Amino acid sequence: MRRAVLTLGGTAAGLAALLSFRSHPLAAQDPAPSTQPTAAGTGQAATSGTGSSSAAAGKAAAGAPKATATAAAATRTVTGTVVDTQRGPMQVQVTLAGTKITKITVLQRTDDSTESDQIDATAIPKLTSETLAAQSARIDAVSGASYTSSGYIQSLQSALDQANT
Q1: Is residue 145 part of a domain?
Q2: pLDDT for 10-35, tens place per residue?
Q3: Which residues contact 110 (CB under 8 A, 6 or more apart)?
Q4: What is the residue range of 107's domain?
C-alpha cells in the first residue's frame, strides 16, 4: 500500500514537472503578427515564415502600397562560416529584413554518405523551422543529427554575428 501511494505521488509530481517545462523562454517564441512599421510606413503585419499566416499577410499586403527601394536596402543576406564536422562541411546563409530572420539557405551540408543525406533531409527543415520561430541561433539540436545540428548552429551563429557588426 505504501509503495502504491509513493508511486502515485511520484508520478503526479513528474507529470506536473513535465507539463510545466518550457523549451524556449517566452521572449524567443514567434509572437503574433506584429505591427512594426514597414519601409512604406503602413504598419503592415509581419509574416512568420511558417506558412500559417501567409494568406492573411498576403491579403494585408494586397491593400498596402508597394514597398520602395528603402525596404530592399533593409533586407540583407549574410553567409556564415564553413563549419567542418566529422560528416563534412556545413554552411548556412541568412536573409534578414531589419533584424528579423526571414530565410535560411543551406549552402553546404554534410555529405559523408547516403545516411548523411537521409539525416540532413529530415534535420535541416526542422533546424530551419526552429530558427525562424526562435529568431536566433539558440535552438535545440535534432536528435540523431548531432553533427548536422552542431555545424548548422555554429554557421548560423557566425552569420548572425556578422549581421550584427
Answers
A1: yes
A2: 888 877 777 776 654 444 444 443 33
A3: 85, 87, 88, 89, 90, 116, 119, 120, 147, 148, 151
A4: 79-163
Q: Residue 73 is placed in which grid cell?
A: 536596402
* Total domains in the fold of the chain: 1
* Of the candidates 38, 43, 123, 30, the residue with the CA atom closest to the CA atom of residue 85: 123
pLDDT score of 104? 93
In a domain? residue 143: yes
- Per 3-state DSSP, what percentage of the chain is helix, strand, and coil (rounded to 5)? 45, 15, 35
Q: Within a domain: residue 27?
A: no
Return the beta strands (E) in 80-152 as ranges: 83-85, 88-97, 100-108
In terms of residues, how long is the chain?
165
Using only C-alpha atoms, the chain has a radius of gyration, in whole angstroms, of 20
Cell numbers for 22, please give them.
Answer: 518550457
The separation between the first and the last C-alpha atoms of the chain, rounded to the nearest angstrom, is: 64
* pLDDT-based confidence at residue 117 (cuts at 50, 70, 90): confident
The values of phi and psi at residue 23, to 5°, are: -80, -25
Higher-confidence residue of 40 and 107: namely 107
Q: Give phi and psi for 92, each to the nearest 5.
A: -125, 160
